[in-house]
Amino acid sequence: MGIYLDRDLRRTQFVLAVARELHFGKAAARLNIAQSYLSREVKEFEDEQGYLFFERNGHYVAAVTDSGQAFIRTMGPVLDDLVAGFERASEMGRMISRQKAGSFLIGYSPLVPGQYQSRCVRFEACGSRFCVSSSAPSPRLNCSIPSHPGDFRRP
Question: What is the mean pLDDT of residues 70-76?
Fold first, then answer.
């Protein structure tokens, strides 16, 4: 039996919602979908799996079957981990995107001892990813974050 990731994950969400609510209508409202669509998808999922998740009594769920409980106990944490992982990955992507779009400026005074100024200038000479700009009245390091790795340019 193959897995159709998007469809099967959606149907797993449906099964978990019905198990929480023990009512197809309430689960459909919680998921913001039509109750008839939810019922049909859960029924098709049961047919594909080869067992029932629920004992039905009209729109109500009389009970979760033993097979359904095993499925829910196994897939509930998996789906929770997947959602949490997706949220972490999305946040990391947003953070990285914001960093690439910005820049920062490190300034130093002409009164800084020469040994430190020469280290700053050597950043550029050693192939550092930072560049030196002396167009301002006091020397400054203008550190731009690249849009692609290794894509640093002079300001």
Answer: 94
